[in-house]
């Protein structure tokens, strides 16, 4: 029986391995992590991450051919294929701080693999890593190998949180990069055989190691660039009276461009886009390509601009001050159908409003109060580190309350900011909400999910990203 071990039981390692176990009953899959609470949660009824369909997949295979364990060394030692899916946050200190990927977790995993292995292994990079990481990993493994042979493969993960299970069941493509040697080809084939249990062969792409590593960074950069492009357009739409939804529909009808991923919003978030682009920028700089680096850096700058613009709209619309005003925040996760808050635009928007002394009442159907308090008090750079490595903040943000209901959040509020596109926000009873708010009552829709005309009829003053401005908002001072 082929044995797979995955180091890192996070948003990628957990779902990916659960699907491999489901689709390959003949393979034994162990997911290991140094975080005891995380592994305990994977072994309980309350999984550590929220992902539609995940519970069902885990329930079908856990205890049969899918195991979650903190005994990292044992499972690595026994495995034929070791996936490494540890976090690769942005470096916070030293050379490349603020841009380069922090490979501390990766390096320690690689050294541990070399230490405990007693048989040949295929080591698969699942984490997103800078180009040429495989070379460094190869060196660590071969210099410590005691004669054991390791083949390194790059197999970046393209799943999107919120649709991870569907993405894993029907991937657009699976990408496997390996060394172009007989041993390298054999290893690529072994991993291909795993995916071939459910992925059509023509969707399994094989490339050299560096192309696979770079493709993942490039794919995320292109995706984020689309969002920044449409967000940049949204600012121009507001200034000119055009409607960004109409513009992106017309643009997306061009088959060369396509309709997906063209929704204007308060900005992109998630653990990957920003860190992967920063990483790309750093690699470009290291390869003496400053123009290319600057080009990609703009994608992040526009994202920051969009979040600032949103906060400025809120404050300027409300008579240039939100001091001591209650603002309801609907949605804190970086997108719907996930509880993940890493790099969520809600953090920057909330911090911006708190900076102007607002009182916030936050509701998100999947994010806990603890997480929100931690995100709002944590130093920006630490968000991407695993929970167990983060210090719990001794102080809580006094101006923030978290509630479990949108009606409670909006009661007596002066304004509402919609920051995540949860489906349930589309069907709220806005008349009831309006009746319980201070007047004038404002809605700032950061995801363009409400029907602005209907809300205006109720009496709200509405700001929707990239849409023609309300007469009220037009008269307000220009926002930067
Ligand atoms: P995560 O932070 O949810 O999970 C990483 C896990 O690795 C943590 O539970 C941590 O405790 C564990 N870990 C760290 N060092 C370890 C060690 N030495 N031994 C055992 N366990 C260790 O991260 P996530 O989101 O799963 O991301 C993992 C990688 O996949 C990152 O490189 C990310 O860029 C990439 N990725 C993430 C996607 C996403 O949507 N979250 C999508 C595609 C790729």
From TrEMBL:
Catalytic activity from the UniProt record: UDP-alpha-D-glucose + 2 NAD(+) + H2O = UDP-alpha-D-glucuronate + 2 NADH + 3 H(+)
This enzyme's EC code(s): 1.1.1.22
Keywords: NAD, Oxidoreductase
Stored Gene3D superfamilies: Cytochrome c1, transmembrane anchor, C-terminal, NAD(P)-binding Rossmann-like Domain
Record keyword Oxidoreductase present: yes
SUPFAM superfamilies the UniProt entry points to: 6-phosphogluconate dehydrogenase C-terminal domain-like, NAD(P)-binding Rossmann-fold domains, UDP-glucose/GDP-mannose dehydrogenase C-terminal domain
Domain UDP-glucose/GDP-mannose dehydrogenase C-terminal: 328-452
PANTHER family: UDP-GLUCOSE 6-DEHYDROGENASE 2, UDP-GLUCOSE DEHYDROGENASE/UDP-MANNAC DEHYDROGENASE
Name of the protein in its database record: UDP-glucose 6-dehydrogenase
